[in-house]
Amino acid sequence: MLASSMISAILAVPIAGLLGDAGWRWPFLLYLSGLPFALMASLGLRQSAPRQSIEAGAEANVRVAPATFFPFQLVLKGLLIGVLMYLVPIYVPFQLSRLGIDKPSTIGFALTLELLIGALVAIQFGRARRHFSSQSLFMFSCGGMAVGVTAFALAPSYHVALASLLLIGLASAWLYPNLLSRTIASVEDGRRGRTVGWVKSSLAVAPALGVAALEPVIVLLGLRSALLMIALLAAVMCISTQRHRITRSGWVSRFPRG
After folding, report:
1. Which of 14, 176, 199, 230 shows the smallest number of beta carbons within 10 Å?
2. Which residue ranges run through the membrane (predicted)?
């Protein structure tokens, strides 16, 4: 799912960059591409809903989570991972602008390369999971993000920044599938749907919360300091995982089961 969404972004980002060369308003035309899908959805809504067997649901005897159930640890992980995944691309154009790269198509090219390598690596998550634990993959992702974001923040040229973005794309590719697979495997059936919904919601709100938290830092200390704070967060998450992996009580491996 992550790879497919990244593939759509791979197609949209370079087109947006080329349109941006003609004017900052033109990239917004890409939102019109959703109209055919909206039409298809409206036609689908007119169809009668499939009949569901109440008896089958009763026989399954699945215990549904109470309304007060809230997976706090998983939501916190989702927020932190969302910050690592989505906040860096938001600031990429501004950091490249500091290096003298203002052309939208050039910025779009850099983001496209990051997305491309991320999609290729994300597809390999299942194969990697057969050989390494989720904790090991999480450490790889966070450690790679720490190095990549630090290099991007301190990049003296466009080529160094581009290489840093490739490392960021490689490292971040397994964050979401790792979190989602662990979430699904760690909760019982009656709580799985609600838990996954909370986790995906935390990923969705993470960019807004992250930007709100970093904007004062950017005003006071500059964009480079804000990026280094993201790198520091990734490093802390990596070290914390390694520490608790040794003691077998880590915040990555300790998931609520009810």
Report:
1. 14
2. 28-45, 74-94, 106-125, 137-154, 160-176, 197-214, 220-239
Q: How many CB atoms lie within 10 A of CB 25?
A: 9
Neighbours of 139 (CB within 10 A): 21
Span 71-98, pLDDT tens digits: 788 889 999 999 999 999 999 999 999 9
Contacts of 254 (CB under 8 A, 6+ apart): 73, 244
Of the candidates 5, 1, 6, 26, the one whose C-alpha atom is nearest the C-alpha of residue 16 is 26
b vs e for 185-221, b when ≥16 Cβ sit within 10 Å of the residue's Cβ? Answer: ebbeebbbebbbebbeebbeebbeebbeebeeebeee
Q: How many CB atoms lie within 10 A of CB 129?
A: 16
In this structure, whether the domain defined by 2-40+69-247 belongs to CATH 1.20.1250.20 is answered with yes
Show the tokens assigned to 6. 């990244």
Nearest to 240 by CA among 171, 148, 132, 146: 146
pLDDT one digit per residue (tens) for the chain, 258 residues: 555 566 677 777 777 777 777 777 877 877 777 788 778 777 766 655 555 544 444 445 555 555 556 778 888 999 999 999 999 999 999 999 999 998 888 988 999 889 889 888 988 888 998 988 888 899 999 999 999 999 999 999 999 999 999 999 999 999 988 988 888 877 777 777 888 888 888 999 999 999 999 999 999 999 999 999 999 999 999 998 877 665 554 444 444 444
Handedness of CA 157, 163, 167, 172 (dihedral sign): positive
Phi-psi region of 64 (alpha: psi -120 to 50; beta: other; left: phi over 0): beta
